[in-house]
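It would be a great kindness if you could assist me with a short task in structural biology. The full record is reproduced below for your convenience:
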Amino acid sequence: MIAAQRRLQIGEHAEASEPPEERGLARDEVRMLVARRRGEPRLQHARFLDLPSQLAPGDLLVVNTSATLPAALPARRAGESLDLHLSTPLPDADPDATPLRYVVELRRDGGPLRDAAAGERLALPRGASAELVSPYLGARRLWVAELRLPGDLTAYLGEHGRPISYAYLRSERPLADYQTVFAAEPGSAEMPSAGRPFTPRVLAALIARGVAIAPVTLHTGVSSLERGERPYPEWFRVPAATARLANVTRGFGGRVIAVGTTVVRALESAAREDGALDSREGWTSLTVTPESPVRALDGLVTGWHDPDASHLDMLEAIAGRRLIVDLYGSAARHGYLWHEFGDVSLIIR
């Protein structure tokens, strides 16, 4: 019911067909719609280059340093060509074991495969294989698979994989287009895209403004969640230095701004009841919704999500339903571009 109401209230939106570079723009020249829960103007149209002026000296941006893997592999079964998307390692599985147990998604002609069965073995490049073990967490599209590879997974993907692409793109893009300036630790099936508009000139302006930047890591799985499907476990790390800096920032009246929903999930997974952060790493199953208060942050930089996406529950938990409906309605009316290579929003609680 809530998703249907969102579709009616948000209306139509414009999809991004190419990265901004292909539209004659730098990454940091995408549009940014600013929403404030308190204060004026409540909604403000800007560019991402204006981000430093929207923040105050002493604020802290927390970014995701996960790098995108070339996680899409060609696969074959009974003469049929498929795509195998690697999502995340199976939580608590031995990363050095053979076979390697991994959560995967099978796709045919751009859509999820519906007729897979446990015990099927798929042929992968260079004599590798993936055997389907069981559906993952009851999902219709995700499987636990046993991967038998000729060597290290990262090296194998570097040779045979490609980045998971999106239907709205007019052409395939190189892996570099799916990385952010913060990418340091390979592990995400898909790009933590809220960090993509950051460039050296934006970072220099933020530093000159007195805005600090701190890292967390959360390795994202495949993002094509189906209607009603909740986020599944992902691996994260909140370093001790980041936790201390966030606690000091809020203690002195500064704001902690998450860059992306992945950072929200990581921070909230490391937060105490009073909002203070601890250093923490491991697998998180946390789902942030309006029924679970946000404790550790004061704002969010994020892209635009479909009305059915569970990410909007997180946005409502941060900013309230009314502001999110107004934000998305304004973005739709003014032609903001959706999805990974589109425009962004800045939400201030």
Notes: Helices lie at 2-10, 51-54, 153-160, 200-209, 240-251, 261-269, 311-319, 321-333. The radius of gyration is 20 Å.
